[in-house]
Design a protein that fits this description.
- There is one protein chain.
- Helix content is 8%, strand content 36%.
- The chain has 1 helix and 15 strands.
- The strands form 4 sheets. A 5-stranded antiparallel sheet has the order 14-13-12-11-15, with no helix packed on it. It has a 4-stranded antiparallel sheet with strand order 1-2-3-4, with no helix packed on it. Strands 5-6-7-8 form a 4-stranded antiparallel sheet, with no helix packed on it.
- Strand 3 (58-65) and strand 4 (68-76) form a beta hairpin.
Amino acid sequence: MQRVLFILVFLLFYSATYADSPPCWCKFEEESANKKYVAIVDRPQKDSLIDPWKSVWTLTVYEKTAIGNRRLWRIKYDYTGYPGGLLSDDGQTFVYVEFWYYASSPLVDIYRQGKKVNTSALKGLNFKVPKDKLVETVSHQLWLWDEGNAYSYTTNNKRLLLEIRTIDGRKHYIDISSGRFASISQRAANTSFVK
């Protein structure tokens, strides 16, 4: 009996460890690394009585000042219910990187100066992560580096890039302005992982 109980507890723990977390659909804030800007994702108060996935969510970026927050820009936000993202140190760029792998869908959303950048070139297949490296969960696959920070902003020849490290240990550079993969000169990148 004790052995059966042990096996049941082990299986429960094992399945909970690899279960997919449901989306929270909650308001959230992300601060820039230099603490000078904050991005807030929220929905209108009037939408609080409807299902959150039916709401129109917005991303608003503020500059922090001595007299309060000053709004810089706002845009409709394509929210998947999972909070998180990365705000640049100038408050002009907000990036969300999907932690679930989707072969035929873009895995990165870039919002820059109140506009959404086209990231259709950043589908899962375009990152060329070997299938045997993807980590299986109950209903999804994980594709991002899992030992420390998986993505950060970096600069190369004064261009702002997003550096993404995938589960196979490779680094991919995304041009923030174009939403496409970028090639960079060796050792010219100044990376600061913050997420």
